[in-house]
Amino acid sequence: MVLNSNIAIDGPAGAGKSTVAKLVARKLGFTYIDTGAMYRAIALKALNDEVSMNDVSGLARLAKDAAVNLETGPGGEIRVLLNGKDVTEQIRKPEVSRVVSLVARVPGVRKQLIEMQKALAEKGGVVMEGRDIGTVVLPEAKVKVFLYASPKERARRRREELAQKGCYVDSFKMEEEIAERDRMDSSRKINPLVPAPDAELIDCSSLTVEQVVNIIMEKVCHS
Question: Is 16 in contact with 149 (CB distance < 8 Å)?
Answer without folding.
Answer: yes
